[in-house]
Amino acid sequence: MARLVMKFGGTSVGSPERIKNVAQKVKREVEAGNQVAVVVSAMSGETNRLVDLCKQIDPVHDQREYDVVVAAGEQVTTGLLSMALQSVGVKARSWQGWQVPIRTDGMHGKARIDSIDGSALIAAMEKGEVSVVAGFQGVGPEDRIATLGRGGSDTSAVALAAALKADRCDIYTDVDGVYTADPRIVKKARKLDRITYEEMLELASLGAKVLQTRSVEMAMNHRVRTQVLSSFADQPGTLVVDEDEIVEKQIVSGVTYSADEAKITLVGVADRPGIAAGIFGPLSDAGINVDMIVQNISEDGKQTDMTFTLGRSDLDRAVALLQKQEKSLGWKRLVPDRNVTKVSVVGVGMRSHAGVAHTMFKALADKGINIQAITTSEIKVSVLIAADYNELAVRTLHTAFGLDAE
Ligand code: ASP
Ligand code: MG
To answer: What's the angle, vertex CA 343, arms to CA 284 and CA 291, rounded to 5?
Structure first.
């Protein structure tokens, strides 16, 4: 007997038929003797619809009321799935975030989970009842509904698995696992049986959309064995686990990309203390995250060029903010560029193998792809390139690191 948290995403519960299919999957785990808690997303498209309603009422709405509206999608799914389970003879009941309770910091629209009291759910599981818990929502310090940010139900599931001391958290979605690269781009991409928390965290934050980054952080911090698998196929997915559970280590486990990038170059900024702080201070105050930063060595000791990347959706705002500082920073030209993409290779094997960056740069050079910026960490190398070369770069690196399926 194991204790499981099963999480079903929007497409998995996208219609009454699909909800009935999910009920069968849950029933099978219960009949195998497992204790089960389920976390659900809103039916696909529903959260977007609710967000849009808020915008139609008032583009600058009260975030606390926004949370009341958008959390409703998950509430509907918990009720429907509980009914579906009952109708196939499985004892079940729905739980909203405030009923569990799932306590958050109350930052409406992007709340973080502070604590989960698992006792009521454990008592329910022990008497053989399936708890169907609303993902994406909790309650703030003032007992008002708070949501966790888009895609947050993955985080709900992993946090619940940690609180319930579950043996595993199964995240059912519309893909059958984590791949060595996006299979829509790389025909020879392979599904990974296992991947480490560290690698999954890098992949998620570097653009792989399969799990919400924060959920992976949570899984890593609490050592929750997490499986990504399809709700439409009957086969094991990818297990996200500790490094020592991985027998066959690859140097590079995956290639990923993020197309949501933009680049700003400030040509001819003064080369003196305080300039970087003057550029990045206002951006960070405005909540704009800067990623790669390249500052050239100044030739004459007076002026230099500064290039950095940021999210494409923040580009216009960042340009406007920097233009306000034009006098104090005194650059010659500000050059924004939307036509960029970030391609990364990730693998814990890099810690013990030299030459990964060289292999990467050489493979790209052989295809005539110019690298505009580079960042590295212990287990990843990322390069910024022209967006037009995105697919070619991903395929080239997949082959160069021996990841292609036979
Ligand atoms: N329903 C929410 C969203 O669409 C949360 C989730 O699906 O994870 O963002
Ligand atoms: Mg989702």
So the answer is: 10
- Rounded to whole angstroms, what are the CA distances from 235 to 65, 210, 215, 406? 41, 17, 23, 21
Residue at 63 is within a domain? yes
Tens-place pLDDT, residues 300-352: 778 899 999 999 999 999 999 999 988 888 889 999 999 999 999 999 999 88
Predicted pLDDT at 310: 95
Q: What is the pLDDT of residue 271?
A: 87
Query: E strands within 27-124?
Result: 35-40, 92-95, 102-104, 113-116
Shared domain check, 393 and 263: yes
> Are 265 and 162 in a shared domain?
no
Which numbered atom of ligand 1 lies nearest the CA of 48?
Answer: 4
151 lines ligand 1 (CB under 6 A): yes
Task: Specify the number of domains making up the chain.
Answer: 2
Model confidence, pTM: 0.89
Q: What is the CATH number of the domain that holds 345?
A: 3.30.2130.10
Q: Which of 174, 206, 229 is the last residue in one of the domains?
A: 174
User: Which residue segment(s) compose the domain that 98 sits in?
Assistant: 3-174
Alpha carbon of residue 150 to chain centroid: 10
By most ligand atoms within 8 Å of CB, the mutation choice from 150, 160, 210 for ligand 1 is 150
CA 167, 81, 69 angle in degrees (round to 5)?
100
Final residue of a structural domain among 131, 146, 174? 174
Binding site membership of 331 for ligand 1 (Cβ less than 6 Å): no
268 and 398 together in one domain: yes
For 39-69, the pLDDT digits (tens) are 999 999 999 999 999 999 998 899 999 999 9
259 and 390 housed in the same domain: yes
Average pLDDT over residues 131-142: 98
Per-residue pLDDT reduced to its tens digit, 203-261: 998 988 889 999 999 999 999 999 999 999 889 999 999 998 887 778 999 999 999 99
251 occurs within a structural domain: yes
**Angstrom distances, CA of residue 163 to CA of 73, 135, 137, 166:** 24, 14, 16, 8
